[in-house]
Design a protein that fits this description.
Shape: globular
Helix content: 25-40%
Number of helices: 8
Number of strands: 8
Largest sheet: 6 strands, parallel
Structural class: alpha/beta
Strand content: 15-25%
Order of helices and strands: EHEHEHEHHEEHEHEH
Length: 214
Protein backbone atom coordinates (compact mmCIF):
# COMPACT_ATOMS: atom_id res chain seq x y z
CA UNK A 1 0.00 0.00 0.00
CA UNK A 2 1.40 3.43 -0.92
CA UNK A 3 2.62 5.63 1.89
CA UNK A 4 0.94 8.74 0.48
CA UNK A 5 -2.18 9.30 -1.60
CA UNK A 6 -2.69 12.72 -3.17
CA UNK A 7 -5.82 14.01 -4.90
CA UNK A 8 -5.35 16.75 -7.51
CA UNK A 9 -8.46 18.84 -8.17
CA UNK A 10 -9.50 20.21 -11.53
CA UNK A 11 -9.38 23.67 -13.08
CA UNK A 12 -11.59 26.21 -11.32
CA UNK A 13 -12.08 23.79 -8.45
CA UNK A 14 -10.41 23.23 -5.10
CA UNK A 15 -9.95 20.99 -2.06
CA UNK A 16 -13.65 21.29 -1.27
CA UNK A 17 -14.82 19.65 -4.49
CA UNK A 18 -17.44 16.93 -4.21
CA UNK A 19 -15.09 14.18 -5.45
CA UNK A 20 -12.23 15.30 -3.19
CA UNK A 21 -14.45 15.29 -0.10
CA UNK A 22 -16.05 11.97 -1.01
CA UNK A 23 -12.76 10.18 -1.60
CA UNK A 24 -11.23 11.64 1.56
CA UNK A 25 -14.18 10.40 3.61
CA UNK A 26 -14.04 6.93 2.08
CA UNK A 27 -10.31 6.76 2.77
CA UNK A 28 -10.89 7.67 6.43
CA UNK A 29 -13.21 4.66 6.71
CA UNK A 30 -10.15 2.57 5.86
CA UNK A 31 -7.95 4.39 8.35
CA UNK A 32 -6.18 6.26 5.55
CA UNK A 33 -5.75 9.89 4.60
CA UNK A 34 -5.82 11.51 1.19
CA UNK A 35 -3.91 14.77 0.90
CA UNK A 36 -5.82 17.36 -1.14
CA UNK A 37 -3.67 20.45 -1.80
CA UNK A 38 -4.98 23.76 -3.11
CA UNK A 39 -3.17 23.77 -6.44
CA UNK A 40 -3.79 27.52 -6.90
CA UNK A 41 -2.22 28.37 -3.52
CA UNK A 42 -4.89 31.07 -3.22
CA UNK A 43 -3.65 32.88 -6.35
CA UNK A 44 -5.86 31.81 -9.24
CA UNK A 45 -4.89 34.85 -11.33
CA UNK A 46 -1.25 33.75 -11.61
CA UNK A 47 -2.03 30.06 -12.11
CA UNK A 48 0.33 28.00 -14.30
CA UNK A 49 0.94 24.32 -14.91
CA UNK A 50 4.49 24.74 -13.60
CA UNK A 51 3.32 26.28 -10.30
CA UNK A 52 0.79 23.49 -9.79
CA UNK A 53 3.42 20.82 -10.39
CA UNK A 54 5.62 22.61 -7.84
CA UNK A 55 2.81 22.34 -5.26
CA UNK A 56 2.73 18.58 -5.83
CA UNK A 57 6.52 18.37 -5.63
CA UNK A 58 6.64 20.12 -2.26
CA UNK A 59 3.85 17.96 -0.88
CA UNK A 60 5.28 14.65 -2.08
CA UNK A 61 8.84 15.57 -1.05
CA UNK A 62 10.37 12.47 -2.61
CA UNK A 63 8.05 9.97 -0.90
CA UNK A 64 6.42 6.97 -2.55
CA UNK A 65 3.01 8.20 -3.66
CA UNK A 66 -0.11 7.33 -5.61
CA UNK A 67 -1.92 10.14 -7.39
CA UNK A 68 -5.61 10.63 -8.15
CA UNK A 69 -6.36 13.54 -10.46
CA UNK A 70 -9.54 14.96 -11.97
CA UNK A 71 -9.68 16.85 -15.29
CA UNK A 72 -6.72 19.29 -15.22
CA UNK A 73 -5.65 17.46 -12.06
CA UNK A 74 -5.60 14.24 -14.07
CA UNK A 75 -3.34 15.83 -16.66
CA UNK A 76 -1.10 17.16 -13.88
CA UNK A 77 -0.97 13.70 -12.31
CA UNK A 78 0.17 12.25 -15.63
CA UNK A 79 2.78 14.99 -16.11
CA UNK A 80 4.13 14.48 -12.60
CA UNK A 81 4.19 10.67 -12.84
CA UNK A 82 6.04 10.85 -16.15
CA UNK A 83 8.79 12.83 -14.41
CA UNK A 84 8.98 11.09 -11.02
CA UNK A 85 9.65 7.40 -10.51
CA UNK A 86 8.47 7.53 -6.89
CA UNK A 87 4.90 7.70 -8.18
CA UNK A 88 3.60 4.18 -7.62
CA UNK A 89 0.29 4.36 -9.49
CA UNK A 90 -1.89 7.04 -11.05
CA UNK A 91 -5.68 7.35 -11.31
CA UNK A 92 -6.79 9.77 -14.01
CA UNK A 93 -10.43 10.92 -13.99
CA UNK A 94 -11.49 12.56 -17.27
CA UNK A 95 -7.93 13.90 -17.68
CA UNK A 96 -7.58 17.13 -19.66
CA UNK A 97 -4.76 15.96 -21.92
CA UNK A 98 -3.25 18.83 -23.93
CA UNK A 99 -4.86 21.30 -21.52
CA UNK A 100 -3.34 24.52 -22.90
CA UNK A 101 -3.40 23.47 -26.54
CA UNK A 102 -7.20 23.19 -26.62
CA UNK A 103 -7.98 26.68 -25.25
CA UNK A 104 -7.90 28.29 -28.74
CA UNK A 105 -10.39 25.67 -29.95
CA UNK A 106 -12.77 26.47 -27.10
CA UNK A 107 -12.44 30.25 -27.09
CA UNK A 108 -11.69 31.08 -30.71
CA UNK A 109 -8.88 33.33 -32.04
CA UNK A 110 -10.56 36.65 -31.19
CA UNK A 111 -10.95 35.88 -27.48
CA UNK A 112 -7.44 34.45 -27.31
CA UNK A 113 -6.06 37.66 -28.85
CA UNK A 114 -8.07 39.75 -26.38
CA UNK A 115 -6.79 37.64 -23.49
CA UNK A 116 -3.23 38.11 -24.70
CA UNK A 117 -3.63 41.89 -25.12
CA UNK A 118 -5.28 42.43 -21.74
CA UNK A 119 -3.04 39.98 -19.92
CA UNK A 120 -6.02 38.47 -18.11
CA UNK A 121 -9.67 37.47 -18.57
CA UNK A 122 -12.55 36.66 -16.26
CA UNK A 123 -13.10 32.94 -15.61
CA UNK A 124 -15.75 31.38 -13.40
CA UNK A 125 -14.23 29.57 -10.44
CA UNK A 126 -16.60 26.81 -9.35
CA UNK A 127 -14.89 26.32 -6.02
CA UNK A 128 -15.37 29.97 -5.03
CA UNK A 129 -18.61 30.35 -7.03
CA UNK A 130 -17.59 33.63 -8.62
CA UNK A 131 -15.72 35.00 -11.61
CA UNK A 132 -12.01 35.61 -11.03
CA UNK A 133 -9.28 37.10 -13.24
CA UNK A 134 -6.94 34.59 -14.88
CA UNK A 135 -3.61 35.64 -16.38
CA UNK A 136 -2.52 34.72 -19.91
CA UNK A 137 0.60 33.08 -18.47
CA UNK A 138 -1.49 29.93 -17.92
CA UNK A 139 -1.68 29.39 -21.67
CA UNK A 140 1.91 30.42 -22.38
CA UNK A 141 3.30 28.15 -19.67
CA UNK A 142 0.99 25.25 -20.48
CA UNK A 143 2.17 25.08 -24.09
CA UNK A 144 5.61 24.07 -22.79
CA UNK A 145 4.25 20.66 -21.77
CA UNK A 146 3.48 17.60 -23.84
CA UNK A 147 -0.15 16.78 -24.62
CA UNK A 148 0.11 13.08 -23.68
CA UNK A 149 2.69 12.42 -20.94
CA UNK A 150 4.55 9.11 -21.17
CA UNK A 151 3.61 7.50 -17.88
CA UNK A 152 5.19 4.07 -17.39
CA UNK A 153 3.60 3.27 -14.02
CA UNK A 154 0.23 1.49 -13.78
CA UNK A 155 -2.60 3.87 -14.70
CA UNK A 156 -6.34 3.60 -14.13
CA UNK A 157 -8.16 5.96 -16.49
CA UNK A 158 -11.89 6.62 -15.97
CA UNK A 159 -13.87 8.76 -18.40
CA UNK A 160 -17.55 9.48 -18.93
CA UNK A 161 -18.97 8.72 -22.36
CA UNK A 162 -21.22 11.82 -22.09
CA UNK A 163 -18.36 14.19 -21.23
CA UNK A 164 -18.81 17.44 -23.19
CA UNK A 165 -15.90 19.26 -21.54
CA UNK A 166 -13.06 16.81 -22.24
CA UNK A 167 -13.78 14.36 -25.02
CA UNK A 168 -13.39 10.69 -24.07
CA UNK A 169 -11.69 10.17 -27.43
CA UNK A 170 -8.46 11.56 -25.91
CA UNK A 171 -8.58 8.91 -23.21
CA UNK A 172 -9.32 6.20 -25.74
CA UNK A 173 -6.34 7.39 -27.79
CA UNK A 174 -4.08 7.48 -24.74
CA UNK A 175 -5.04 4.03 -23.47
CA UNK A 176 -4.92 2.32 -26.87
CA UNK A 177 -1.20 3.02 -27.23
CA UNK A 178 -0.16 2.12 -23.68
CA UNK A 179 -0.54 -1.40 -22.22
CA UNK A 180 0.01 -0.06 -18.67
CA UNK A 181 -3.27 1.89 -18.84
CA UNK A 182 -6.59 0.36 -17.74
CA UNK A 183 -9.43 2.32 -19.38
CA UNK A 184 -12.93 2.40 -17.89
CA UNK A 185 -15.60 4.21 -19.92
CA UNK A 186 -18.69 4.90 -17.83
CA UNK A 187 -22.15 6.35 -18.42
CA UNK A 188 -21.47 9.78 -16.97
CA UNK A 189 -20.54 13.37 -17.79
CA UNK A 190 -17.37 15.29 -16.97
CA UNK A 191 -18.07 15.50 -13.24
CA UNK A 192 -18.53 11.72 -12.79
CA UNK A 193 -20.54 12.34 -9.62
CA UNK A 194 -23.23 9.79 -10.51
CA UNK A 195 -20.64 6.99 -10.29
CA UNK A 196 -18.81 8.01 -7.11
CA UNK A 197 -19.40 4.77 -5.21
CA UNK A 198 -18.41 2.62 -8.17
CA UNK A 199 -15.33 4.78 -8.80
CA UNK A 200 -14.16 4.54 -5.21
CA UNK A 201 -14.45 0.75 -5.21
CA UNK A 202 -12.55 0.59 -8.50
CA UNK A 203 -9.86 2.96 -7.20
CA UNK A 204 -9.63 1.14 -3.86
CA UNK A 205 -9.00 -2.15 -5.67
CA UNK A 206 -6.54 -0.61 -8.15
CA UNK A 207 -4.49 1.04 -5.38
CA UNK A 208 -4.78 -2.04 -3.15
CA UNK A 209 -6.15 -0.06 -0.22
CA UNK A 210 -7.88 -2.95 1.49
CA UNK A 211 -11.51 -3.77 2.18
CA UNK A 212 -14.08 -1.37 3.61
CA UNK A 213 -15.54 -3.24 6.57
CA UNK A 214 -17.50 -0.31 8.05
Amino acid sequence: MPETIVYLHGFGSGPGSKKALFFAEQARRLGLEIAVPDLTEGDFERLTVTRQLAVVERLVAGRRVSLIGSSLGGYLAALYAARHKQVHKAVLLAPAFGFARHWPERLGPDRIDEWRRNGWMGVYHYGQQRTLPLGFQLLEDGLRYEDFPEVHQPVLLIHGTRDEVVTPDWSRQYASARPNVELELVDSDHELVNVLDWMWNRIRTFLDLGEDTA
